[in-house]
Amino acid sequence: MKKRVLIIKLGYCETLINEQGFVPSLGDVFRHTVLLHHYANDEVTWLTSKSAEPLLKDNPFINKLVIYNENTASEMAGTTFDEVLCLEKSHTLSQIADSVNAVRRLGFRTSSTATLAHHGSHTALNIANGQDHFLSIQSVLFQMVGDYWNGENYILGYKPKQLEPFDVGLNFRVGTKWPSKQWPEENWKELERLLIGHDLKVNWQKGETDLYEYMDWINAGRMTITCDSLGMHLAIAMNKKVVALFGPTPADDIYMYGKGVILSAEWACSEAPCLKSECDQDQSCMRELNPKMVARAVINILNGRNGKK
Question: What's residue 91's pLDDT?
């Protein structure tokens, strides 16, 4: 029997990081689409932010997409669902989750004094509070809903346009929420020089203000080189080869689906991964990522020599 399910995920807080804000993390929203495999036979309503709408629109497993606005709380109060999964930690959004009628409540809830968890969310809160772990976020999310993750991938509803193909896309921008993830421009330019030297067609990131153009651009490349960002998850969903560059954020919860590798600097400060949006050290861990090392990984993967998970 189909359940009526409400998923609340706007990206205002990342599930495995203990923080709140009002700048959506679009990559965090998109990677939660893996849960739609669990709800494939149910009637799903998903509450999200306006900026995340293109990532969820036309998804075959979402029956109704609700875009959050100032009237959302009053409009949803008293509605009825069989199951509510709240993946936001903010008091405002958890109040919406508590205001609807539901047989079963999963995910996060908040009180005026502390962040609490419904059934299945304790592992996520422990990780967010700094506990060491070896779980991918997919495993944690399936644990939240009482299921086991068996390697299911993200689900993208948008069908990208077919643009002129190229070999390697340089996904050099990062979101405003985590400027510390940025790899220096001079490193990107040196990487481009090295790749062109191997007769590869290189293309710089498109679609800065248009997510549809951005998804079209990712789809046109054989490989995406990216920092820890939305582009990494989208490229994986589109079955592209990926080289992901990590520094201030942890890679423990990232699963690459056999699409490529995660690289981090040979040198890192004692605080890494610091989870700071701005670097306060004299020596940036992202700056220390060597373009030659990245180029070597690109060539190995494109030549079929990728042994990473």
Answer: 82
Amino acid identity for residue 39 in this structure:
Y
The long-range contacts involving 258-261, CB below 8 angstroms and separated by at least 24 positions, are 258/306, 258/308, 258/309, 259/235, 260/223, 260/297, 260/301, 260/306, 260/308, 261/297, 261/301, 261/306, 261/308
Q: In whole angstroms, give the CA distance from residue 214 to residue 229.
A: 13
Q: pTM score, two decimals?
A: 0.89
pLDDT at position 147 over 50:
yes
Q: List domains and CATH numbers for the chain.
A: 4-144 (3.40.50), 166-302 (3.40.50.2000)
Half-sphere exposure of 168 (CA within 13 A, CB side): 27
- Which two structure tokens, joined as six digits, stand for 304? 């079929």
Listed in sequence order, the residues at least 6 apart from 71 whose beta carbon sits closer than 8 Å to its beta carbon are none
Is residue 307 very low, low, confident or very high in pLDDT (cuts 50, 70, 90)? very low
CA distance 103 to 47: 18
* Interatomic CA distance for residues 163 and 214, integer angstroms: 11
Confidence tier at 114 by pLDDT (50, 70, 90): low
Q: Which value, in Å, is the radius of gyration of the alpha carbons in the chain?
A: 20
Distance CA 171, CA 294 (A): 13
Once rounded to an integer, what is the mean pLDDT over residues 72-78? 95
Q: Measured in whole angstroms, how far is the alpha carbon of residue 10 from the centre of its chain?
A: 12
